[in-house]
Amino acid sequence: MERVRYGIVGVGGMGSGHAHTMQGVEECMLAAVSDAVPEVAESVGEEFDVPYFADYHDLVDSEAVDAVIVATPHYFHPEIAIYALEQGKPVICEKPIAVTVSAADAMVAAAERTGTPFAVMHQQRSEPVWQAARKLISEGRLGEIYRTMLVYADFRSQAYYNSAGWRATWAGEGGGVLINQSPHSIDRFTWLGGLPSRVTGYTATKGHAIEVEDVAAAMLEYPNGAVGYIYCSTTEAPGTDILELSGERGKLQVIGKELHFWEIPAGVRGFSDTSTGMWTRPDAVEVPVEIPEREAGHIAILRNMARHLLYGEELLSPGVEGLATVEMINAIILSGHTGEPVGIPVDRARYDAFLAELVATSNYGKKATGPDLRVTDNVHH
Q1: pTM score, whole prediction
Q2: What CATH number does domain 125-293+325-360 carry, 3.40.50.11930, 3.40.50.300, 3.30.360.10, 3.20.20.120?
Q3: What number is the average pLDDT over the span 233-252?
Q4: Concatenated DSSP letters of 103-156
């Protein structure tokens, strides 16, 4: 069987996880690894018996590599991905694709300019419950959407933030809960409900000694007049993960991995405009939703890109759609800091200047944390 030969850039954390996952994917094989820390590159290369490099350019330029997985800290995603795309090497980039919308624009432009396939590792899209939710939306079962809501509340200890000098710093990450822990939830939220046109955000540091936000919330306004709400934090236990979309013809609710869908045959406004009863309300009928059995997680994205290259299979998570997540993150952070509503698309130059000021005062490289612990996240699979 023909296989796609992947090279992985950044194997001290999630990249090493991808190397292991890849062993179970018939359509692809690990061909090379690179890491900015030579000892890490050597260790992983020897573990999998593949060539290893300290310079990612050498991996991308290698004739042994057909496609590239970018699994470095996210500030480095654009530089590496754009170089690979310009060399004609398809890219899967870890989330978020970039820290800023301007950098994300450059990645999307490189993919479009070169015609090189580009995907983002939003693997939760592959999960059966989210595939079922997407199908309901694409079939128009909700009708016009009137309200959106996302609550993603999780927990991280202070030890987690102390584990590396770059964590929870403006210069090392470019944000906090929004850019590190929430991108998967924000991706699903925008994938299903679309992007708002205006964001009024709130950000704060409530439960940790860090320089970035561990709590974020925003009121959302959409082009059609719909409203929404989003809340993300790393200060709560037990965790909460709820997404809800309410429309003219139906309501969709996902709590954890449990999906509920109600049909409103008469329509909300349709019933309101025609009913003669003062206390009547439209019927809302809960309808069973078929949840497909399918492969999910990182393995699904790795296989999907390989099958896209080999057989033309449609990408599950195109890189261009990763831009929506960065738009939302940048809009909430900017609004939270300025106290003003922010329009989407976000003003690229304004956000770049705003972030540069925060980076200039960042503690990255100054706080004493001991050796950086490069440990694969075991929360998201």
Answers
A1: 0.94
A2: 3.30.360.10
A3: 98
A4: HHHHHHHHHHHHT--EEE--GGGGSHHHHHHHHHHHTTTT-SEEEEEEEEEEE-
